[in-house]
Design brief:
455 residues, alpha/beta, Spore Coat Polysaccharide Biosynthesis Protein SpsA, Chain A, UDP N-Acetylglucosamine Acyltransferase, domain 1, 2 domains, eight-stranded parallel β-barrel, seven-stranded mixed β-sheet, 35 strands, 16% helix, 34% strand, elongated, binds uridine-diphosphate-N-acetylglucosamine, binds calcium ion
Length: 455
Amino acid sequence: MSPLHVVILAAGQGSRMKSALPKVLHPVAGKPMLHHVIDRARDLGAAGIHTVIGHGADHVKAITPADDLNWVLQAQQLGTGHAVAQALPALPDDARVLVLYGDVPLTTTATLERLIGQLDDSTLGLLTVTLDNPEGYGRIVRDDAGKVTAIVEQKDASAAQKNITEVNTGILAVSAMHLKSWLPALSNSNAQREYYLTDIIAMAGKEELTIAVSQPSDPFEVQGVNNRIQLAQLERWYQRRQAERLMTEGATLADPDRIDVRGNLRVGQDVMIDVNVVFEGEVDVAEGVVIGPGCVIRNSRIATGAVIHAHSVIDGAEIGASAQIGPFARLRAGTRLAANTKVGNFVETKKATLGEGSKINHLSYVGDATLGANVNVGAGTITCNYDGVNKFQTVLGDGVFVGSNTALVAPVTVAENATIGAGSTITQDIKAGELAIARGRQRNIPDWPKPKKKA
Ligand code: UD1
Ligand code: CA
């Protein structure tokens, strides 16, 4: 089959966003709209992805991973037909060409596959949608036999044409060969003085091409974003679909309208997710995990039966089976917790490994540390891992007991079953089974005359 090339139009300014950020870089589900569209082109296995940019071109290029992209500059935005024409030199004659829009981010791969599935040299695939309120869109004009004959833009439409509710989504597919003959022939003698891509429909009709129309499963799939209200509507539609997918896969959501997934979340059965939980990046949550309200979980894996209590922030962590986290815990990158561990309230961990059954229950910072099994870290313990220049390791063996308010000045190693008295500042290694106490000795002075207020 002839190679598929995708042309993405993303040169417009998007002035109604009222933003310094180019419109196509505004995120939906944490990812720039344009990147959603590029991902769909990749899903389709496109041989070439040609992105037409203009407004904010440097910014768009700077934040878009582009190994497989061809950037096409449209210096002046003279219309959608003109935009596609800028990509023509890069399109092989035998290509099938799919036109997508950088500000229409949520079209599904299935819908696009249906559209291009109908394509051959004598067929143009057109994606349309029927809307209760077609205001602003190009209208699909059909003859008495129902054949599509033209698209008429709102501003050029007659009163009768304005009543048509089937509208152009903008998305279409046709062979490069046809585009190369039609686009140079476009004129801009219309209400907007633009070169309309939509005029190729009438050209195709004249040349007896078949116009094969398909429609998306949901109008939101082809909803473009012109302002922040539409951006928020698309975001909510996307999130609602994610919520429904999760419930279908066996997760209970306290409120499907109060969960946000900005990335890829995989869940096992009987996962319970309370309100206002945000997932970012790649997150795996195994069977039976319970996640309390207000948690933020990013690029992490949580094993079976773990419980994440309210308002915990988890980033780059691996949490073992039946572990108990939070409330108000912060697990940072490189945290590895074995099964049955506990990290409690106001505890921060970073590059910390905890062996099975170990606990840090309250008010601690544990960073650059390796803890064996069944270690108990008392409240207010700090690993002093940083001298202002370099980071150092703390190692606590199996069964170590760290008394409350201990400072562990790294590098330091505490061997198994050692005990540290509360309030100690530990600067030297401790051998197995030893008790270390490093604090000022208490003196009790009897009959102390309390100071009196001056006259
Ligand atoms: C276009 C269609 C209309 C359709 C609607 C769907 C035309 C003439 N009209 O209208 O039939 O119903 O989309 O939303 O095609 N762009 C460029 N360069 C340009 C002009 C536009 O890259 O010179 C990009 C814009 O950034 C935008 C997209 O193309 O992403 C659509 O352009 P826009 O001006 O919004 O077209 P509409 O008037 O909405
Ligand atoms: Ca538009």
